[in-house]
Amino acid sequence: MAIRPILEAPDPRLRVKSTPVETFDDALQTLIDDMFETMYDAPGIGLAAIQIGVPQRVLVIDLQEDEDAEGKPVRNPRVFINPELFDPSDDKTLYNEGCLSVPDQYAEVERPTRIHARWRDRDGNSHEEALDGLLATCLQHEMDHLEGVLFIDHLSRLKREMLLKKLDKARRTRRAA
């Protein structure tokens, strides 16, 4: 396993539409393991393969919502390969989203509260499930990456430009330090 560099906006590779996975082989297993290691190290709760420069329809999520007896987050890793969303609810939820590719920047994004999803796991097994709450929001966010869309694309032009200016300023400050 390896921690891979995470692409940051405005890297044009983040705008590439990812291609479906066709082969479930050792290379895919290594990619998935690297994605989890990279996501946990960042730290984050979701990561799409394109965020580490691999334009394949693979994403990983671990909300780590529960804690063990010592108060440490309990890992619940989930892999979504070639995911599809359908039958979104009409009701919407606002969530203050952030992104490992837009570090330390957050904004409220409105998304369907409930969705149905279909995907394959790391072994190629098919799954279908109705999802809601943070998992539904996170899956929609990560699936946007597979289409070359960032959460900031859901904002007004003014908010998006302000956020990108703050990101650029933070990046310059990090380099100067």
Automatic annotation (TrEMBL):
Biological function: Removes the formyl group from the N-terminal Met of newly synthesized proteins. Requires at least a dipeptide for an efficient rate of reaction. N-terminal L-methionine is a prerequisite for activity but the enzyme has broad specificity at other positions.
Kinase as UniProt keyword: no
EC code: 3.5.1.88
Keywords attached to this entry: Hydrolase, Iron, Metal-binding, Protein biosynthesis
Name of protein: Peptide deformylase
Pfam families, A to Z: Pep_deformylase
Known catalytic reactions: N-terminal N-formyl-L-methionyl-[peptide] + H2O = N-terminal L-methionyl-[peptide] + formate
UniProt GO MF annotations: metal ion binding; peptide deformylase activity
Positions annotated to bind Fe cation: C99, H141, H145
HAMAP family referenced in this protein's UniProt entry, alphabetically: Pep_deformylase (MF_00163)
UniProt key word Metal-binding: yes
Cofactors demanded by this protein: Fe(2+)
Active site per database record: E142
Superkingdom classification of source: Bacteria
Entry's family note: Belongs to the polypeptide deformylase family.
An example Gene Ontology biological process: translation
UniProt remark on cofactor binding: Binds 1 Fe(2+) ion.
